[in-house]
Amino acid sequence: MESRILSHTATFGCLSNLRKLPRERGSSCNTTSVSFVSARPIGAVGEGGNLIWGRQLRPALLLESSSLGGKPRETLKPGLVGAAASSSPAEGSDSAGETKVAPLGFIDKYPALVTGFFFFMWYFLNVIFNIINKKIYNYFPYPYFVSVVHLFVGVVYCLVSWAVGLPKRAPMDSNLLKLLIPVAVCHALGHVTSNVSFAAVAVSFTHTIKALEPFFNAAASQFILGQSIPITLWLSLAPVVLGVSMASLTELSFNWTGFISAMISNISFTYRSIYSKKAMTDMDSTNIYAYISIIALFVCIPPAIILEGPQLLKHGFNDAIAKVGLIKFITDLFWVGMFYHLYNQLATNTLERVAPLTHAVGNVLKRVFVIGFSILIFGNKISTQTGVGTAIAIAGVATYSYIKAKMEEEKRQSKAA
């Protein structure tokens, strides 16, 4: 901490002398004024970020990312570019010692526009994934195998990224592996059961059931982690439970396989959150997601072989190829896996750019988009009670997310004060 304070103090001292002639500058500023930013992984759990989900695409944040070769990376902040340049006339200063500040990039000039684009791409990729995923299940109803394909395509993507150094692969040791295995197992179970539900019932109904995830998170925080949950949060969850119950009673595509699978998915992702808090590490989120995807892939392969292997070899592959052709079958599996990986990646890129409250609103709107587009694309008929129940559940999730985000923001501000 002392070294960081001294570094910033020296930087500000040099900034005050920028307009002075070189002979008038003190010896304290003879060296290049570079601000050393403390190395911190983007999205690291230790700072309250997401443990997993995706690659950091923002160049400005990449500069603040972890080091190469164990040494902190020197980062020039935009306002200090001129200070570094002024140390040598050959590097861009004029003869009078005037500072030339580099022009702002598009991301710095229009941050709101860039964030809006990230939100659009997050929703777009999520909707496309759900549409392709459900269309595959209409002619190839093997969710365990499709889940393996999702993870396999993502793992190949991560391996190629490592091979080209974007990002550089972080080393793995036995202690970190022990921490990540429970997270990966819960991730694999939640992912597979979500796909079982998608294959069994309408996409809109699965997402309505998954709106209960905040309820399971609150219950786990209260009764497992021992955290005190305010009564206002519990009250905000009442409409969620009521709305999901109403929607389930009159859902035309209802069956117990789809309902129970979606509920197991909620529980799995809740435990994934619990284990993620225990698996705090300094590794960046991209590498952690890659390792978790690899572990989850190995977890998902045995159930797919045991439960669906014989049917796949007997008639599953042949029936799918006969219905849509070999090329479409392969390309559908590839693209559904790619969109699965990319929408999770864009979700992290989006959520890391915004405040907790915007994060909460964005998550709720994403679910509304997916439910709405799935009804339009697949023409699912829903009863009036199902529609009202879904609306009540989404409103409850929005209320819960708003209250929780406000509480987290107030807590953050009190700590900063």
TrEMBL record:
SUPFAM superfamilies: Multidrug resistance efflux transporter EmrE. GO terms for cellular component: chloroplast membrane. Residues 114-401 form the Sugar phosphate transporter domain. It is found in: Plastid, Chloroplast membrane. The chain crosses the membrane at residues 110-132, 144-164, 179-203, 215-236, 256-275, 287-306, 326-343, 364-380, 386-403. The keyword Transport applies. It holds the Pfam family TPT. This is Sugar phosphate transporter domain-containing protein. It comes from Juglans regia (English walnut).
